[in-house]
Design a protein that fits this description.
single chain; 187 residues; mainly alpha; 8 helices; 74% helix; flat
Length: 187
């Protein structure tokens, strides 16, 4: 029995070492494959027309982020204040910048933490702002349905992002490159 345990420990010891290198890379790949285009397309819907659309969000941006407030002012964006504009712009820029940082592996832990916050706010907005409370959309944990957009899917998103917060970007990242240069400069 001891030789079998020894082989097991050696093999899975190597798997564990490889996992420290591979898991962050796979998490970033998964994020890129599933969520990068999703968030960038969402960000594009929030930009206004022309080059100045970078500073003047579309009405769609306000309707996605502040649906009830926009309805309350009769869909007249000019009735919303500086706070609303700043939140919409921050959310729009975050949909472009945070995913990019995660994919290239730059400031990955902070970007992933920011994305976790973003997913939480997005989910709360979907539920309380847009009224997404039907079970098919909301979903539930520990049931026999794995297709709920908010509870089920976003739990996987947050898990993937949490792995990046805990483990970092991994060996194939800008973070690792910068870490290597910093260590070389200190030596």
């Amino acid at each position: 029995m001891n030789p079998l345990v020894s082989i097991h420990n050696r093999v899975f010891g190597l798997v564990e070492i490889a996992g420290d290198w591979l898991l962050p890379l796979f998490a970033r790949f998964t994020f890129a494959a599933v969520l990068l285009v999703y968030y960038w397309n969402s960000g594009l819907t929030k930009l206004g027309d022309g080059i100045f659309g970078l500073f003047s969000p579309s009405i769609g941006a306000y309707s996605q982020i502040f649906p009830k407030q926009l309805e309350a002012v009769g869909y007249d964006v000019s009735q919303l204040g500086l706070f609303h504009w700043a939140v919409v712009m921050a959310g729009t820029y975050a949909e472009f910048i945070l995913p990019l940082l995660i994919v290239i592996g730059l400031f990955t832990r902070l970007a992933a933490l920011g994305m976790i916050g973003f997913v939480v706010v997005q989910s709360l907005t979907d539920v309380y702002g847009h009224g997404a409370t039907d079970l098919a959309t909301l979903g539930a944990w520990f049931d026999n349905q794995a297709s709920g957009v908010i509870m089920d899917q976003r739990l996987f998103w947050v898990f993937t992002l949490s792995l990046l917060v805990i483990k970092g970007a991994g060996a194939l990242s800008v973070d690792a490159l910068m870490r290597g240069r910093t260590q070389a400069a200190m030596a």
